[in-house]
Structures are given as structure tokens and as C-alpha cells.
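Tutorial handout. Part one gives the primary structure; part two gives the three-dimensional structure as C-alpha cells.
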Amino acid sequence: MKNNNDTSSISFTAHYTGYVWHHFGLSDPRFATSRGRLYFALLRPFERLARCLIGSDIKTTLLQRHFLIDRELDKLIADDHDLQVLEIACGLSPRGHRFTRRHAGIRYVEADLPGMVARKRALLQQIGAPDARHGLVVCNILDRDTPDSLEAVIAREFDPAKPLVVITEGLVNYFDLATISSVWQRLAAALRAFPTGVYLTDIYPEVSGHRFAGAIRTANRSLRVASRSSFTLHFEDDGAMQAHFAGLGFGKVTVFNPDREHTAAPAARGGAIVRVVRAATGK
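Part two.
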């Protein structure tokens, strides 16, 4: 029977982003797939056009969000060397591999749907990555009361006496706001079981105030077609984003705009179209 909560149709983006990380030296070459290489080549002319029209492209936003999440995770590890990390919808992200090699004290668990978990597990075994500190599990954030639910994975995999960070990257805009807000509310409740709980995610907000709003909406529609999914923009501004997370049970919420942050990512000439949110809970 087909699981109605299976959203694996967005795997187009997993292949593409996996190749972007490799192309910019962020991952082992084996994280790059032939499909990812093909998508990367096919999108090149459209990205050149996007840079001309709106001063940015997909690669720029991917790097902006990735470097910002990495920066915040590094800060959290500096504060707690025995940090626990759960990266949901990990896809072909190299972050788990990089961070477990860089930080000896952390436990890092990657989670995704069954097909991607099988692919990622085989990949990590090829590069000799798996050990007791680097796990890989099946998780579907839309499930409730199953072994693969968000709550079940967190309860099973992590020590409630240690801090926990949950990461989603390139995920939340594939759901309407009501659906993903329900997940965020459940996540806030689960994180309150830990001495410190932090959620790091990227979000693509509404672009009504952006100087290239029309072109961005056109690109958004193209992504919907390419990924066979409904890519939906959330929130009118950063203040609305911050207030929304606070209303769902997160005590301290910070919204990072790449235009105002210093990372190794390239700048968007027309203004950043992605944000990174750091939302914390605590006992």
C-alpha cells in the first residue's frame, strides 16, 4: 500500500543539491550522482539568465543557507561539545559526514524516507563513514504514532540529558504553512524534553517587496514543475516569521538574512531570497 505521507517526489532537488555541494568542494565526490550532474548541466543556462534578471540563482541561495546553518551549528557545538544533532530530510547533504569528522564529541543522526536512507547508507559505507556517532534512520515528519514519526525517532535516538539540535534544509517550503506549522509545533514540544533544544532551518519567504518579485515567482513556478511538487513561499517579512515560531512554542527565535551575515557564500546582487531561522527551547 502506498504511504500517503511519502513525499519522495522532491528527490530531484536532492540530486541537484548533492552535486552543488560536490562542485563547491563541500563533500566527497561520491556524494555527487550522475543525475545530479545532469540536472546541474541542464540548469546552467537558466541560472545564467537568473543572475542577469534578478542578480542571483539557485546555487547562490543554496550556498547562502548551507553556510549559515553550518555557522550556527559550529557555534552550538562550541558551547556544548557533546551536542546531539538530528538532520531531517538529509538527502545527499554532506553535513553529517563533515561535522562528525570535524567534531569528535558529537552524535549526528541523519533521517529521511526509506529510499533515500538506503541510498545514503550505501554511500556512507563506501567512504567508511558510519560509526557509533553517525547514525542513519527512517523518519517521516508527517507520520504520527508510528516508529518512523518525529517523536519516536527523537525519543529512541537521543539522550534527554544532553542538548539536541534539529536541522531541516531545503524541506519546509515543499509543504503548505498549515502542514509544516503542525510539524514545527510537535517539534517544539519534543525539544522541550532536552536541557537545550534548537531548531535550524531555511525558509523562502514571500517576495512581494523584492525588486525582482515577478521573476522570482516565475522561477518558483518552474521549480514546482521540475520537482513535481508544490513549492510554497511562507511569510511576508522576517518579523512575521519570528512571531510565528514564537507562537508555536519556541522561546527564542532569530531570523538570519544572508545580506546581513558574513559567511563564505556569494552575495545576491538583488537581495537574498532565503532566510535561516534559529528557534530555541529550554527547560
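Part three, for discussion. Confidence is low (pLDDT under 50) at residues 1-10. The chain has one domain: 10-90+161-282.
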